[in-house]
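Team,

Forwarding the record for the chain on the shared tracking sheet. I've put the sequence and predicted structure together so nobody has to dig through attachments.
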Amino acid sequence: MSRLINAFRRLGDLLIGSALKFGVIGLIAYAVDVGIFNALRLGLAGDDEWFSGPLGAKVVSVTISTLVSWFGNRFWTFREHRRQNFLLELLEFAAIAVVGMGISLLCLWVSHYLLGFQSLLADNISTNVIGLVLATAFRFLMYRFWVYGSHRSDALSTIRAREAEAAERP
């Protein structure tokens, strides 16, 4: 029974540590996302209708904030699980981010076009509050257990463990 309790404690410690780091990186990426979104919505990038519209502005802001998030999570949050094949890791990270962006865009679309809440404040609440909470929970679980999961054979920690095992053999 005590082994089971210790296993749960270790799992909790790992998840809490990862979640806190993920949260710090997420706040930085969130600031980038919201800043770029609002700058584009206010027309600071010019008069291009797609970039200044709610959906186009969100696509651009999420794309840039995803790269910020990938760097932070790769080199800090999940550094012991980062992968040797960083391009595949980035592709998987981006795929999860696209689904997360879809969650935020869906919230924005429902609010802006279906419910008719078309103010900048309503756009921010729907995408940067409601969409953010739903998408963040999804992304954390997928990044932790799929992209940076301990099951990955090309994770740097797995490679190091195999090398250590091989060095111990006579």
